[in-house]
Amino acid sequence: MCGIVGYIGDRQAAPILLDSLSKLEYRGYDSAGIAIRNAEEDVQVLKAKGRLNILAEKTDGGKAVTGTIGIGHTRWATHGEPSENNAHPHTADDRTVVGVHNGIIENYQKLKEKLTKRGYSFYSQTDTEAAVKLVDYYYRKYNCGPKDAISKAMVRIRGSYALVLMFNDYPDEIWVARKDSPMIIGTIKNETFIASDVPAILKYTRNVYYIDNLELARLTAGKAEFYNLDGDITDKELTEITWDAEAAEKGGFEHFMMKEIYEQPKAVGDTLNSMLTDGKIDFGKIGLSDDIIKNISQIYIVACGSAWHAGMVSQYVIEELSGTPVRVELASEFRYRKPILDRNGLVVVISQSGETADSLAALREAKEKGIRTLAVVNVVGSSIAREADNVFYTLAGPEISVATTKAYSAQLIAGYCLALQLGFSKGVLGEPEYMRMIAELQALPDKIEKILQDKERLQWFASKISNKKDVFFVGRGIDYAVSLEGSLKMKEISYVHSEAYAAGELKHGTISLIEDGTPVIGILTQGGLYEKTVSNMAECKARGAYLCGVTTYGNYETEETADFVTYVPKADEHFIGSLAVIPLQLLGYYLSVSRGLDVDKPRNLAKSVTVE
Ligand code: F6R
To answer: Which residues are part of the catalytic machinery?
Structure first.
């Protein structure tokens, strides 16, 4: 959710912090702030409501505030409205301690009451202010150093946090603490960087430490020292990030979303190739031998949002190709539902960020029950990747746009690979069929490329429906699962209300919403279901709907029913969701652009949902 950064070194901190924050704006953008200090001078805190550029203007791009140590924050409000007062950094009364925070302090009301009784007053509605003042309280009460004060606060705080703190008495240090919220620490020569996500510091260093849960660290220029809650030093290895810095820039595209849509052939190809050995899928590479795979009785896919949609597509494919039963669960439900899990089952947690709070909690729930867990994750070293028994890394590269595209496409590949390997190891798929299907997967990148060449027609269609208030997506089977993603893409960035329905289900209630001109988009890629869905679309047309069909080249008779048809290349029907979703992503994108909205940073959203 919120973006946090920090810098300590020999350069001016403010411009670096603002630059790093600009790479994290997708994590939250309702207010921003920085705290900067020099060894000799007191800390200066500057905040602004609204986008980061307002803070940048206020500080003349950071030039107006001098100091080589600082921390910064972009906020996605959880407690208290977006305002300058609630913006981070937050400070103890006389600025002994200054801090920024990502996460949620669940018991902050209790902490506030306790601190109020001890003479503290509160100026904001945030949970963060309570955390900073709690650290200040222990710091003064025990007259101890930052390490003990933070540890004591960590024992009292319930919830999740990545906390970055500066102490007035320790002008050469920044302190950090973490539980269940992402944070990395990068070092190079005599500089140290802190960020909640890799793109923020990629330009400066590739050498990072991953701070673990319930750990804290003392950061000085070029150095990081880690401690556990008992105050003992913990060993930490420096990891090299292999993403290239350009991958986190717009590279000539107007928006990250379009750039990422264009990166899909590569994301799909790279992810697939990473799992192939001598032309066959090799889960042995990630610690899942054929013997283990063969004995998997049941798959439980757990995820949120688009990752859950990727799970929905995978469900159809895995069950059809391998005969293994699959259940797809929303992580936010799974974690509280006391699910009954087969001991020989496999829990697959899908997450681009690897930090989604509900997905992480679901993973822990599964591990507690002793079930093997497989993470399908894009961000290397993220919490879910580190805690799962096995990890399938999707190789989509950094995804910046809040609306996911390339990570979703790479997640589909993970689902297909699992389906094929389950099917092959269990003897459901013979070798020729298995090899044919791998070849089908290898052909997907070129086919996606082809769809992208035809994007102007979708731009036209988007402008045609840009003033509509409702849009419906319908499909059956895999087409229904893809509709879910098409509908989410549209509503989250264009703010046009949309819903995805299993085509046969519409007439059980929702069809009453169809009025003259209501767009209904039918996904028609499954031969056996084509006529059924076309009939359902015709039912909508009879009630005034304006129909769009997404189908494969050759199905030209669709034009007899639909008002507008867009085509994707033919492919094995199990994998065609990877193609059908591309026009839907483009449609969402163009609708957002034609409505003059901020495609990459839709209102109320954040890229990585690290709170429940
Ligand atoms: C929608 C979108 C979200 C995410 C969801 C899960 O475009 O990106 O629905 O898919 O928040 O996020 P991850 O995959 O990071 O767990």
So the answer is: 2, 607
